[in-house]
UniProtKB/TrEMBL annotation:
Organism of provenance: Winogradskya consettensis
Protein name: Uncharacterized protein
Domain NmrA-like: 5-208
Signal peptide annotation: none
Gene3D superfamilies documented for this protein: 3.10.450.50, NAD(P)-binding Rossmann-like Domain (3.40.50.720), UDP-galactose 4-epimerase, domain 1 (3.90.25.10)
């Protein structure tokens, strides 16, 4: 019986490939390290033996060099009698620097005759805007793209093409499909479309490429060597050489590719854009500068939910709020007055530390005194060294007229010294 293996089957395109195959009544197994039908680890060949008809191949994400592991897997696939492999590559992989393995795997597949293959070369996927890849934080898309345009593609369209190639391999043998959306859009145009669809303001903010890559790497979301891919992808778009609309999706599926507006209607209805609400207080400028503190903002917003008005952390603060850093580190101010001054103090945070999560929230509310004591932990990385950083806080928050008027902060200085160095 026809039996498909979807590597990366829990990912953005793979999960849709698997669902689509299942919807057709076909036997399919998803494969990944976590939460898949079968455990599959590119680092562990013992997990890779499977006799199958067709394989959808997503290389290990986010590795840069993976050709050797894919080659070894293809040997196993040959031995197991696999008939066809559809490989998820990337737009213009043939022009990618040789330090990345997109092209090497394409060449390897072309050299094999025991099974047929198809190569998919998608542009940037639209899903990037709806997940952690290029997240919309407080109504801002921050990415080094300048005024360059890209024909963003819906992962569902990639999956639809992949499924056709797996189900009718003979028709798509040795084909290479360029998969792009119906219009090339700048990031500012993407922001305008999402604003229109969601009714909430979203804007685009350009950023220095090296700073952006440094921040992404520092979150631990990708390893340091993945910076070369981020650099290549963003500089390609910024230089005006981003992907352009093509007709391969239509040719293979008979369906026109999904527009960004249609994608946004689907994606943001389920998970609304976190946009800065309209408010009277002056906006803190360049909220994108505070990405490194997002987990802190979110956990405080959670701890104070229902007690204060405002969307973003800074909106919860009264204009004349006073912050006292009761237990802190040498060189840090003991007292800061005013919402703008607090924001300016925090603006530089990402130069040293980037947070990726926050947890252990406990909120103790004294209604009579209108004070909330928040306990929480934050986790991140040290920008300079990449080493892990965790700290625990107690913040004593006074609320008046549904705004924070006073904040007393206690942190663990030892954790800061361990991360950033001990004072001489
Ligand atoms: N983002 C874009 O705009 C874009 C554009 C063009 C091409 N691409 C390419 O598309 C690919 C990503 O595809 P996607 O978005 O469908 O995937 P994805 O959502 O990033 O998911 C990755 C999948 O691979 C699995 N995986 C990651 N590392 C693994 C490992 N070491 N061993 C086994 N499985 C592993 C993950 O599950 P586990 O973590 O549980 O193992 C998950 O199922 C990348 O090669 C990327 O270069 C992306």
């Amino acid at each position: 019986m026809t039996n498909f293996l979807v590597l990366g089957g829990t990912g953005r395109s793979g999960s849709l490939v698997a669902k689509n195959l299942r919807d057709r009544g076909l036997a399919v197994r998803t494969a990944a390290r976590h939460d898949a039908d079968v455990v599959f680890d590119w680092d562990d060949p013992a997990t890779q033996r499977a006799a199958l008809t067709g394989v959808y191949l997503v290389a290990p994400v986010p590795w840069v060099r993976y050709a050797a592991q894919v080659s070894a897997f293809l040997d196993l696939a040959e031995a197991a009698g696999v008939r066809h492999v559809t490989y998820l590559s990337t737009y213009r992989a043939e022009q990618a620097p040789a330090t990345m393995d997109f092209r090497a795997v394409e060449t390897e597949l072309a050299s094999r005759t025991a099974f047929t293959h198809t190569i998919l070369q998608p542009g940037w996927v639209m899903q990037n805007f709806a997940d952690q890849h290029v997240p919309i934080i407080d109504g801002v898309i921050t990415v080094p793209g300048g005024t360059g345009a890209e024909a963003f593609v819906d992962a569902a369209d990639i999956a639809a093409v992949a499924v056709e190639t797996l189900v009718h391999p003979e028709q798509h043998a040795r084909a290479r499909y360029t998969l792009t959306g119906p219009e090339a859009l700048t990031f500012a145009e993407v922001a305008a479309i999402i604003t229109e669809v969601t009714g909430r303001p979203v804007r685009y903010q350009d950023i220095d490429r090296a700073a952006w890559i440094g921040a992404v790497v520092a979150t631990g979301f990708v390893p340091a060597d993945y910076g070369v891919i981020l650099d290549w992808q963003t500089s390609t778009v910024e230089s005006g050489n981003g992907s352009r609309p093509g007709d391969d999706i239509y040719k293979v599926t008979g369906r026109h590719p999904t527009s960004l507006a249609a994608f946004a209607r689907r994606a943001f209805r389920a998970a609304p854009v976190s946009a800065a609400p309209v408010r009277e207080a002056p906006q803190i400028r360049d909220l994108g500068d505070f990405v490194a503190l997002e987990p802190f903002f979110r956990i405080v917003e959670q701890g104070l939910a229902g007690l204060v008005d405002g969307g973003h952390y800074f909106d919860l603060l009264a204009d004349d709020v006073v912050f006292e850093y009761v237990i802190s580190v040498p060189g840090y101010p003991r007292r800061v007055a005013g919402r703008e001054a607090v924001a300016e103090l925090y603006r530089g945070y990402g130069a040293n530390l980037v947070l990726h999560s926050a947890d252990e929230l406990a909120a103790h509310h004294d209604r009579e005194k209108s004070v909330v004591v928040l306990e929480y932990a934050v986790h991140g990385r040290v920008v300079a060294t990449g080493s892990a950083y965790t700290n625990r806080f107690v913040s004593v928050v006074t609320i008046q007229n549904r705004k924070v008027t006073h904040w007393r902060d206690y942190l663990d200085p030892v954790a800061v010294f361990d991360a950033l160095g001990w004072p001489a």
